[in-house]
Amino acid sequence: MANDVKKVVLAYSGGLDTSVILKWLQTTYGCEVVTFTADLGQGEELEPARKKAELLGIKPENIFIEDVREEFVSEYVFPMFRANALYEGLYLLGTSIARPLISKKQIEIARKVGADAVAHGATGKGNDQVRFELAYYALEPEIKVIAPWREWDLTSRTRLLEFAETHQIPIAKDKRGEAPFSVDANLLHSSSEGKVLEDPADEAPEYVYQRTISPEAAPDKATYITVGFEKGDAVSIDGEKLSPATLLTKLNELGKANGIGRLDLVENRFVGMKSRGVYETPGGTILLQAHRGIESITLDRGAAHLKDDIMPRYAELIYYGFWFSPEREMLQALIDKSQEFVSGEVRIKLYKGNVEVVGRSSPYSLYNQDLVTFEEGAVAYDHRDAAGFIKLNALRLRTLANRDRKVRG
Asked: Which CATH superfamily is domain 2-68+97-178 in?
């Protein structure tokens, strides 16, 4: 029942949709609304969100705006990149990994202000509703969740604008028309979908891309950088120590300038439908290749292959919204253990949309040049040992071949 809710914490961007949701919560539930706006590095000024909330009657003490960029990268992005996580082999999970942090902050605020409900602006067709709500319930099992897009009758742009005008919600001029596509952004990526992108047969217009120049327009000269790692996390660029968020920001700049990180993807949503999205993850694309580069000389074969085996499951858990699940935490413990000696430097070549590892070094390197050289020398490898190794591995194949020969006569 609507009157069961007394105070709700809303994930609030200050845009048209969440401003309408704010007023709708007040009018439908008659409850006190608390707003939370997270600076995840989306590249937008957040003070207008504060002013908009105040204009809509929110008390100053009920407006929470927090810069969470460092926490986002160090506690969510970096742990995910230790796993080299890719959903369906391609997607770097930029939207997915931001939702648990926003949800956690909402629950923390709800506890602080004594709210009995939380609300989000995700639609009833997308993955985000699942991600937000799984996180809410994992952190606060009895919390009341309000999902306006599943409840209200404002099912068209016209109805939304009419509601805004009726309740004197300011509407920016560029919001009155139908947006050509929708955008979600944070420090890791930007994602664009809908409208002009709905037909997967049509190439995305160039104006969709906001975080990268096209590879064709990128410089004709390659850019070289060196990324330093400590225990699986990037800590420096060209020898300069940087905080997690500052480092990712720098990689984003380098990726943007070299046309790196574009992805046009048709993916399988958790809710059951396919969707087409255009993603830009310039810094993350560089970081993934650099991390795999340092792992290539510091991880044992068995550990590396096991990580690759579990990666799709780990990525799927994040995509589906199970960040705060025991299975994700169990996999994370395994992954983090594997990173104990993943330290060193990786030299990267950036050129017209491509990222190449061209050098790697580590004090914990397992690469032994004496073992792999074709030159003569005293080494621990005796070529004659290979004969027995091969025969043992061929035993089952020889046994099968002998049986098949007898069966066929």
From this structure: HUPs (3.40.50.620)
CB atoms within 10 A of CB 346: 26
Q: Is 360 helix (H, G, I), strand (E, B) or coil?
A: strand
Q: What confidence tens digit (pLDDT) does each residue in 331-363 have?
A: 999 999 999 999 999 999 999 999 999 999 999
- The span from the CA of 409 to the CA of 403, in Å, is 10
Can you give the C-alpha Rg of the chain in angstroms? Answer: 26
For residue 399, give both structure tokens.
Answer: 């046994």
Q: Which CATH number fits domain 183-361: 3.40.980.10, 3.90.1260.10, 3.40.50.2020, 3.40.50.150?
A: 3.90.1260.10
CB neighbour class for 391 (10 Å; exposed up to 12, middle 13-18, buried from 19): exposed
Pairwise CA distance, residues 297 & 364, whole Å: 8
Least confident range from 9-13, 15-19, 158-162, 375-379: namely 375-379
DSSP strands (E only) in 40-110: 63-67
| DSSP H/E element including 240 | strand 240-241
Q: What is the pLDDT of residues 23-57, one digit of tens each?
A: 999 999 999 999 999 999 998 889 899 999 999 99
Catalytic residues: 17, 99, 128, 182
**Largest CA-CA distance found in the chain, in angstroms, rounded:** 89
